[in-house]
Amino acid sequence: MMELIVFIFGLAVGSFLNVLIDRLPRGEDVITGRSVCDHCKKVLRWYELIPLLSFFLQRGRCRRCHEKLFWQYPVVELVTAVGFVYLQSQALEFPQSLALVGWLLFFCSLLVIFVADFKYQIIPDSMVIIGIVGVLLQGQALWLSALGAGGFFFLLWLVTRGKGMGLGDVKFAFLMGLLLGFPNIIVASYLAFLTGAVVGVILILTGKTQLRAHIAFGPFLVLGTIIALGWGKQLIQWWMNIL
Ligand SMILES: [Zn+2]
């Protein structure tokens, strides 16, 4: 029963995260703005905004213009709900009750950053701040590795003159370091550069993108962070054995 309540709560939060994803990068008001169809700009009614259900009842299409709705909406809602259920199931292992709130905030900031950067090539500052607040509530902020990671990415940003990555990536690297600490921050950054390079090469080879086109780096940093969180220790062990 508890899982079901957390799942539905997660769906509702996920629906709000979709609002953040589309409005923060465009500088639109998060609270008072109305949700509209991405294609025909029709203002959506409450029954068109029910998480998951509306999307499936409308078969993934707008009720007025019948254009396809973005997959982002149901996927973000579902991922949020599943993430909330998982984090809640881990709550007993957290050192303090606020730690669960911290993990939920951190999870939401990561999800918004992933999709917003993928869609608009922008990492909203407010989401990095929410992530930092989340790590502080977890009670395990690691400032040295945060400064190290932020400083290293800032140097990269200077050297590449902002062509390889944006300042948003620098700020996000600070957040990664704050949570992951050393040496996990190295694992996360390495995985981000590796997967980013592989995907970049595949996109160029298949003609999906030009060599100079900008591929958002944020989603790779988020993936690296999640993998390092879940399997960082095992990966380090594995690499040590190979070397
Ligand atoms: Zn429409």
Mean pLDDT comes to: 92
Beta strand count: 0
In terms of DSSP E residues, the strand content is: under 5%
**Sheet of most strands:** none
Stretches where pLDDT is under 50 for at least 5 consecutive residues are: none
The total of helices stands at 9
Element string (H = helix, E = strand): HHHHHHHHH
Q: In which range does the helix fraction lie?
A: 55-70%
Estimated structural class: mainly alpha
Rg measurement, Å: 19 Å
Shape: globular
Q: Which ligands accompany this protein? A: zinc ion
Distance between the termini: 48 Å
What does this structure look like?
The protein has helices spanning 2-23, 53-57, 72-89, 97-120, 125-138, 143-159, 167-180, 184-205, 218-242. Helix 1 packs across helix 3, helix 3 (72-89) packs antiparallel against helix 4 and helix 4 (97-120) runs antiparallel to helix 5 (125-138). The longest helix is centred in the last third of the chain and has 25 residues, at 218-242. It is built from nine helices and no strands. The protein is mainly alpha-helical. The structure holds zinc ion (ZN).
Give the SSE map.
Layout: H1 2-23, H2 53-57, H3 72-89, H4 97-120, H5 125-138, H6 143-159, H7 167-180, H8 184-205, H9 218-242
Helix pairs in contact: 1-3, 1-4, 3-4, 4-5, 4-9, 5-7, 6-7, 7-8, 7-9, 8-9
Zinc ion binds at residues 37, 39-40, 42, 62, 64-65, 67.
